[in-house]
Amino acid sequence: MPRRTCRARVAGMGLVAGLTLLAPAPLHAAPAPAGPQGGWPTPGQAATGNADDDPVAAKLLVYLRLLSASGTAEEYATFLTENPSWPLRPLMQARFQQALATEPDDAVAGALCSRLQLTDVHALQRCAHAAPRPAALDSWARVAWVNHADTQGETQAMLSTFGPVLTPQDHWLRFDRQERAGRIDAATRQVVMLDTIQQPVARARLAFRRNDPHAEDTLATLPPEQQADGALVLDRLRWLHHAQRLDEALALWHERGVETEKQQTPAVAAVFWRERDAMARDLLLAHRTDDALFMANDTADIGSATHYDALFLTGWIRLEYLHDADHALADFTPLAQAVPVITRSRGLYWAGRALWAQGRHAAAKAQWEQAAALANTFYGQMAIERLAGDRMNQLVAPNQAGQQIRRFLLREREPAPSVSDSVHFDTSDLARAAEILVAWGDRHHARDFILALDAQDTGPMKHVLAARMATRLGIPDAAVMVARLAGKDGLTLVHEGWPRVYSPPTSTLPADVELAVARQESGFDAGVVSPAHAVGLMQLLVPTAREVARKAGLNVNVSAASLTDPQLNMRLGAAYLSDIAQRMGGAVPYVAAAYNAGPHRTDGWLETLGNPARDTPQPDAMLDWIESIPFGETRNYVERVEENMAIYQATDPAAGHG
């Protein structure tokens, strides 16, 4: 869900889902795998048996105990040293530092303080009073000061123990991080620790960050060299844009913003790009196409992924607004050569559109044929639609898509791991640990080991083997996650990446849209809880789920705990989707946008961007509507839901072609 939208499943929308929609959905979960002959030991058997009989099982018991914060600092240090590839290492390191901070024995603490780099304030303080004092302790403290310790209590503790070793540069870097991250209260407290010459520019940055109407008065008091501070320039650009002072913001981009962006690191320049992207889209809405093109055409070093976004927006504006197919083709071509399948299919599709606009129809079809080979991607499916002509209109009539897309999916072949690849993978401690955990009924931690395996090995085979293991062990969310990572490496894993592990309830919604949403919302992790407290497969907020149940007359106990039941979660999520579909006229792109960004905001987009499902029910018009959505996360969400739905329709056994 977009962080800036704070999407909530808004209660009280007059849900009218029928009882057939809420009929129980049968669930299908893979059984626990069989262990070796005789079976894996149970946790109790492993705890009381000889560790030599099954060292991985014995090590797992230690691992699980340490994760629960039940170990000594010595145990944590030893485990971390001996098992560098085991998952959840940052959590284990945090547990080590917590135990070290409360270690009562000075000799023990002194021996442990230099084992691992420390970042925790209390662990650093403990080691400052231990003997021997680690030689690197002061440098660790400076790093922690710059990157952590933002609460008032942590700040005071660090200053009381390490204040003398902290430099003016440390203080500035700390402020810079806090302000850029939007930690305004912490950054405000930090200002008094800065050099007097740095404090005015810091206050100016905070004034713009707080949306202070007098921020420019504060800026005017600064000398020109301080007004050129990169973060200050970006803060002012955002402030002008937020105030809808587009002419002044555009002038500042011309005068200072573009050159300032080029002086930044790629990571910081990527933040400038996000502002350029938002500004370009607002300028398009204001019918200022040339200005929007200037903002989109970002030539700074903004990192490869962000660069592809900039190239796409530039090419799209040139083709769809300025009808400049020649320059648009040059923008789309690098995307068509990218490794990630989503990026590559996007580039191939739009390169085909540019070639078609040039009158080079055979060349355009050749691009679409290449994109269609990536039929598990949204733009691969759009290319299939182009090749199919009137036989397919996925965005407006989604139930037509399955048969056409299935033909191309059948052509895709996963790479076959060699025997040596499989043996290397299956005999690793991480793979054995995942097997044992599932036999113990602990799929939650088994997931971590599968993902650690996928991260540890190199080459495409790791994705194939990890996804297959996740599928075999009945951990579909891990398979989905691995498939997403595989896609970034140019590999397609349709069978493992789009599991049909739950049967959606009967409804009038387009076929398989519930599965499409669930895959995007949770990756089929039934127990996941978001930072906004959305729960389960369909990521429902508890108040909204209660309202859904009440409107439907469903006598069920709805709580955060009960929403982890996949059957209940999908029933209520499908009911909520049905209501949104009625409100939005049934068009899946609108339904997906509303589920992600909220119905009210989507209503606004239908006002400002138009309603092609009603006015121009053609795929090109709907595609431009999707690409015009101002929130990048919602654009991606809509495309992924459409993509998922088409794959599930194409592989649905009930449709007669699964």
TrEMBL record:
GO terms for biological process: peptidoglycan metabolic process. One of its GO terms (molecular function) is peptidoglycan lytic transglycosylase activity. The keyword Chloroplast does not apply. Keywords: Signal. The keyword DNA-binding does not apply. One of its GO terms (cellular component) is periplasmic space. Residues 513-610 form the Transglycosylase SLT domain. InterPro entries: Lysozyme-like_dom_sf, Lytic_TGlycosylase_superhlx_U, Transglyc_AS, Transglycosylase_SLT_dom_1. Residues 1-29 form the signal peptide. SUPFAM superfamilies: Bacterial muramidases (SSF48435), Lysozyme-like (SSF53955). Residues 30-50 are annotated as: Disordered. Belongs to the virb1 family. Belongs to the transglycosylase Slt family. PANTHER family: MEMBRANE-BOUND LYTIC MUREIN TRANSGLYCOSYLASE C (PTHR37423:SF2), SOLUBLE LYTIC MUREIN TRANSGLYCOSYLASE-RELATED (PTHR37423). This is Murein transglycosylase.
